[in-house]
Design goal:
The chain is mainly β. It contains one helix and 36 strands. The longest helix has 12 residues. The chain starts with a strand and ends in a 25-residue tail after the last strand.
Length: about 475
Amino acid sequence: MHRSVSSLSAVIALGALALLAPACEVDSTSAGPGDSSDTTGDAGAPVLDCPVPTAGPTKHSGDIEDGEVWTAAGSPHIVEYDVNVRDGKTLTIEPCAEVRVAAEKRINVASPLTPNSGKLIAEGTPTKPIKFVGENGARWGSIYIVAPGTARFANVTFEDGGGDAFEHGATIVADGDGALPAAPMLFVDNVTIRKSRGTGILLEHRSTFIAGSKDLTITESGDDEAPFPLEISEHVIDALPTGKYTGNKKDEILIRTEGDGGAGSGLVTDATLHERGVPYRMGDFEGDHFTIGGGKDGKVVTLTIEPGVVMKFHPRTAFQVQHFSTEEPSSAIVRALGTADKPIVFTSAADSPKAGDWRGLWFGGVPQADNAFDHVRIEYAGYDCSCSLVTCSANVEEFEAAVIFGNQPPSAFITNSVFKEIAGHGIVQGFNGSLVNFRPTNTFENVTGCVQTLPAKPDTSCPEPRPICDGM
């Protein structure tokens, strides 16, 4: 039960205001979060316009009441025990309100006792922001949202969250229902997360940001167990907000692969991998595969990669443009068009990278004509592909490479690019067909095997004597 006890003096002086927060315990002896004279801040920051609270602090625990509002006047709002926004209820937090959360406690949305529902709305303005902090400097838990619950935050700052180790030390956690399309559960606009114990935001089980999210800052966050500002899946990348993700334990956005439930499937809707100022860490377990396509409905999926994107692959992981090597047209297309000044980089995530750290790019099925890679750099690839292909290149028995084709590509669609520090071959052409020559516009540096292998002829025969590599 959510408690409601008011001090006598507060009730006499501010009875009308107390009625706005019937599920609260008010203590007028504590100081408020600020006053309207506090107009200083960072250069260029808006002048704050928050009055001195007149009815706080206000204490909360348990289930909220229907349509409950945490007012600015009642600040600070102290979450003594977990607060639950469920059973279709909505909790609204006013502009200028301050929320102080006790150690390891959290605000649950549509939880516990799932399946459930609920909404949390905390939308301030640039001059009337909202703040979440730990009570007396405590490491508080998180904002924990379970599908189909939602949370909306605008002009909000979170500090010192992430007190639950089972949530990767995250300040905000969205837990989807595992279905696709991914559930839009979290909206952010001009939101800052600072000093999260672990990752700033954890989106899992196919949850994602609500469309229009932007201006997210995560800084001074992360520990050895969860060093990244964001942990998301491939289903989130298209909605990833603009913002700043630097100043953390490790300034990389972790992409954890979830697939769509089908064998070998991955990203199954068109998406753009945005350049957000920091690298992407691809996978967090050896053997993870970032896969495009392979959905159950046979749809052809296009991934667009923006200039300047850097992907750092966990050891032994791979980038797969469709997983299965069938003789049917591929279910995936990749458009990775960098520039000379802003190349797109596929590289190793190792602290001391070396050739063979990760598997490289794998093209399953017959590559689509719309694939395009220009001004990309592929580095430190060539780990064991565990693949058996065909070749007419003399002395080639293994097929590790930066790029592997199991079927003939329609053209040399990788152009103006660099292959560097590769264990094995630059490009494996492991099919029956004609050689597609990738040499003319690309650069190959420190490739231990062939620049490109020679495929078998369409009738499966090979020239005799067999040439070394592609014979060029």
